Each structure stands twice: as structure tokens, then as C-alpha cells.
Amino acid sequence: MAKLELIATATFGLEAVVKREIQDLGYEIIRSEDAKITYIGNEEAIAKSNLWLRCADRVLLKMGEFRAETFTELFEQTKALPWEEWIPMDGKFVVNGTSVKSRLFSISDCQKIIKKAIVEKLKETYPVERFAETGPLYSIKMTLLKDVATITIDTSGAGLHKRGYRAADVAAPIKETLAAAMIKLSFWNPDRVLIDPFCGSGTIPIEAAMIGKNIAPGLSRKFVSETWPQIEPEVWKKARAEAFKAIRSDVELKIYGSDIDGKAVSASRVNAVQAGLSDDIVFRRQPFDKLDIQDDYSIIITNPPYGERIGEKKDIEQIYRDLNYKMSKNNTLSLYIITADKALEKALKFKKADRRRKLYNGRIETTYYQYYGERPPKE
Ligand SMILES: C[S@@+](CC[C@H](N)C(=O)[O-])C[C@H]1O[C@@H](n2cnc3c(N)ncnc32)[C@H](O)[C@@H]1O
Asked: Who contacts 202 (Cβ-Cβ below 8 Å, separation ≥6)?
């Protein structure tokens, strides 16, 4: 198999988590910076990364990187890349791009030049004047940063947060990749109780259950590179078979999700069924103040509501008072809470946050506050 350079893209702040995931898959990292982790892999790595990376946004195949200060440089260096090794005669290829602090700033011109360069290169291999572009999709991306162009092909298709289980939605669901990262950044393990008392569509409990049972997050969906003739179907088949074998069906989980809104609870249940995890998570309709946390060393991982409207503010202040009350009653409880509400830290007086990280939920800047409870004796 060919040695390839791959790039996993991630939300700002999650680079270290994604880097760890790639290392756990056994691949060598060569660079990690600004929401991009570059590593060495092969065709199998494309399949495995798409199937297994829980916290990355996409997996890109790096075609090349070069300085381009003029359109001629962009054209010639793009043409010099081995496009014929990836794009078949009927391949459909689209070009997108971004330019930051670079001389070439007209994205539409850069797109046209890149497309032209690829066409010219492919004509040297395929005996056609026009390409029908009726076959598999190759989504090409150019990022120009300080006159350095990085050219990639997207291997994922839909973003990796699209796991395939979200049949029912609620307002403001958390991104699946971020929910998975919240769990990975916590001390939760399947021996401990996990509670999301503001579960909405159930993303956090479902992601936790998938982690607890070692279910590859991409197992129920397809990826665009599965349609590429360059990657043998056998490679995908093997990677999927290994992922099925890796599922730990014997693990018993104690994961609970609740929400004040009956529709949200129904959505959570539907989504858990879609994910094949309906027996592993208990969802119930319940306002937070009525929630009774019985088990010591339970871990709350959640994103509570945050609103700007006056009425909502009052409700949220009450939620913070309830949190203070519940957390101060039992110092074995841990709380991991993500919010865009800057007032949270001041309002939670039961303890100072042990750790805070700035993370993005889509475009919204949020902070992930971590309050560690006492550890169970055996840990
Ligand atoms: C930001 S959303 C959570 C979204 C969720 N993480 C998801 O991925 O869909 C906050 C949730 O808190 C719920 N909520 C608001 N007030 C509540 C209360 N007092 N008790 C329990 N749930 C409440 C809302 O119904 C909403 O579903």
C-alpha cells in the first residue's frame, strides 16, 4: 500500500484529543497545529481513520504543499501533483478554497486555475478532450496561508459528526464530535455512573455508550472514499469487520439522560434505538431539581441551557442554584459542564473549577468547566 500523508481536521482546542486518537490507531503524527493534525498512513488508514476518529471533523488526503505567489506558480505546481493516481477518467472533481494573508486572494480565480491544472494533468493520462465527471466525487480543497498552498482531497464526505444515528432532533444539539471529546476529556469509565440531566436529543449519553462499548463511530455510515476505485473494497470490508469484532457487547453501562422536555426525551430514545443502544441508556423526563443522584462517584457530563432572554436567565439561575445544592451535598460527584454562559463559573460556588478549556460548539465559543469529585478507592 502507498505511503500517504493524511490530515485530520478538528475544532480548535481538540487537537490534543484527536492526536491521541490517531496515535491509538497506530499512526505516526508529523504535525499538529491550528485544528489540523497531519499524519502518515496508507489506504487502510483512510478507512480506519474515518471509521474510528470520534473527535475529528474530517480526514483529508494531502496531495501537496507549495509556495504560490502567482497564478502561474499555482497552476504549474498543482499540475505537477499526481492527480491521475487518484482521479479516474469519470471522476467528478470540485474545488473549494480559502486564502488568508496571501498574495493570491481571489478564491474563484484560484479555484478555476486549480481545476484547469488538474484537467491538463489528467489529459496526459486519459485520451479525452472533455471529462464527463459522472463518476465518484473528489472534493478538492486549497488552503492558502501566508502564500503556502495546501491541496487536499476530502476522504470523508459528510462531516464525521454525522454518525448516522440522529433521526430525531431538538433545538441546539451539541455536535457529536464535541460530545465525544467531552467524555474523552473526563475521568468517566464504564464502571462509573454517567448522568446528563439536560440531555436534549441524547448526544452525550449516546456518545458515552459508544465509547463504553468500543463502537466505532462511523460504523453505521458511508464515506465518500468508499466509492473511489483506488481503495480496494476489501480494505473497507476488513476495517469494518475488525470494528464489529472490537465491539464490547458484554460491557454493562450505567448511563442516564433526562430532560424537562418530553419531546427531547422521545428524540433521545429514537436516537438511541438508531444507534443500537436503547438497552444501554435510561432516558426519562424529569426536571433537574427533581433528579436524585443516588450513586457515589457519579459523573455529570452535560451542556445545560443558556439563554439571553430574561425569562430564560431566571430559569438558568435556578439551575445553577440546584447544581450548587446537589454538588455540595456529595463531594464524590464530578461535574463536567460546557456552556457559552460566562456567568456559570461565578454562579457555581460549591467549588472552584479544577480545569477549564475554551472549545467551540460549531461557531459558538464555549468553555468546558471540569469539577473533579473524590476518586473511587479502587482507582
Ligand atoms: C443545550 S440543550 C442540550 C442539548 C443536548 N446536549 C443535545 O445534544 O441535544 C439544553 C436542554 O436542557 C433542557 N432543560 C432546560 N431546563 C431544564 C430543567 N430545569 N431540567 C431539565 N432539563 C432542562 C432543555 O429542554 C434542553 O433540551
From this structure: 196, 257, 267, 268, 269, 271, 272, 281, 283
